[in-house]
Amino acid sequence: MSFNEAKEHAPGRLHAIFTDPYSAFDNSVTERQLHLNVAIEALLGQPMVGNQLTLDVVHGWENGECDPGNLQHSCHRLASLDDLRQIVERYRQAIEAQEPLPRDTTSLIAEPLAEAIATAQANGQDLDEDTRTIPARWPAFAKGLTLYTFFKVYHRLTYGEDDPYRSIRCETSDGLREVHEFHVEEGEFAVILPAENDTLDTVLTLHESQLEPVLQLFEKFQIGG
After folding, report:
1. pLDDT at residue 1 tops 60
2. Other Cβ atoms within 10 Å of 107 Cβ, number
3. What is the pLDDT of residue 3?
4. Interatomic CA distance for residues 217 and 141, integer angstroms
5. Number of other residues whose CB lies within 10 A of the CB of residue 164
6. Which parts of the chain are beta strand (E)?
7. How far is residue 195 CA from its own chain's centroid?
8. φ and ψ at 118, to 5 degrees?
9. How far apart are CA 69 and CA 57, in angstroms?
10. What is the Cα–Cα distance from 191 to 157, expressed in whole angstroms?
11. What is the pLDDT of residue 197?
């Protein structure tokens, strides 16, 4: 069993800016708003200016359900604040008209999970049903810890989290990534960025319910405006 694919509470980019990022965004901190502004500009503002920012909107899980096959998403290029406004409006109109939300054909968890399981079995690993279907058991096979880590990220973005900030380092098929999760009063979102290669896109990931709050954050801090 390998546990070197991912590590939660790992030092990341914000540790070079704040003495303790885990306390910087707590409601009891006087300069919390300033800290949040600095963090968002560092993680999202610069990639947006460089046309290296993608928005990934997740949806499909409701009422505690978390079947990987039901997790849907849609990816959008974010080169300006107006791009974000247009995406928010597109979702708003779909919700008001009770139409299906935008979705890509790619799968965030289900398809990579099926591939990882098939590879493990092809290599002679015997995986029982619990190991294949219970997320906490996925680290038993290669790439399973990565999938479990992102499963938890999407679950927290959908259903909420008590900790205002979380920093994760995770090995993906495209290389090492840093995941910065924010669960603050102003909005809940994650920033997934390359840990080493800055030529790759940064991905802003959030649940569809957080589109409006995150837009307000961008407008407040004049990100991409």
Report:
1. no
2. 15
3. 55
4. 39
5. 21
6. 6-8, 53-59, 72-77, 165-172, 175-184, 187-194, 202-207
7. 15
8. -60, -40
9. 16
10. 11
11. 67
Q: Which two tokens stand for residue 151?
A: 């499963």
Give Cβ neighbours of residue 17 (< 8 Å, ≥ 6 apart).
Answer: 38, 39, 42
Do 89 and 75 touch, CB atoms closer than 8 A? no
Q: Two tokens at 65?
A: 């359900």
Specify the amino acid at residue 61: W
pTM comes to 0.96
Question: What are the residues facing 171 on neighbouring strands?
Answer: 176
- Per DSSP, the residues of 156-202 read HHHH--SSSEEEEEEEETTEEEEEEEEEETTEEEEEEEESS-TTSPE
Confidence of residue 148 (pLDDT cuts 50, 70, 90): very high
Answer for the pair 187, 217: CB distance below 8 angstroms, yes or no.
yes
**DSSP conformation class of 69:** G
Q: Which of 24, 75, 25, 31 is nearest to 54 (CA)?
A: 75
Nearest Cα to 207, choosing from 57, 60, 88, 86?
57
